[in-house]
Structure to design on (119 residues):
């Protein structure tokens, strides 16, 4: 069982920055991809960014050039640095990881952390 704990959400004014962090805990697993998604009430969950085990990154069109995803493999931690935030970035942000554990492949989601950007 892999559990994820997210932190770093909060409120910020337009143009500001926030950094989200997600730490995976458990035993006997190797994480491949680590990603962030976000969701606004009433809308589908949206892909934000992903980083592979080889630290190859990919971003959603709406955040490309403003957000930076990084990971610390030794600490099973992924971070999302969000710069030049806009009101439309307001959402609940979810950490998502895929890997291999004792019982085979797995995918886990965090509980989410709220990010609110005011104009």
């Amino acid at each position: 069982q892999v559990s994820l704990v997210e932190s770093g959400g909060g409120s910020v004014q337009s143009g500001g920055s926030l950094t989200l962090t997600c730490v995976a805990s458990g035993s006997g697993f190797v994480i491949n991809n680590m990603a962030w998604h976000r969701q606004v009430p009433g809308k589908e969950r949206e892909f934000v960014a992903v980083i592979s085990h080889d630290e190859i990154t990919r971003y959603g069109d709406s955040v490309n050039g403003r957000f930076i995803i990084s990971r610390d493999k030794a600490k099973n931690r992924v971070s999302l640095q969000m710069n030049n935030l806009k009101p439309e970035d307001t959402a609940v942000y979810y950490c998502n990881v895929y890997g291999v554990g004792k019982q085979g492949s797995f995918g886990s989601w965090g509980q989410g952390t709220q990010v609110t950007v005011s104009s």
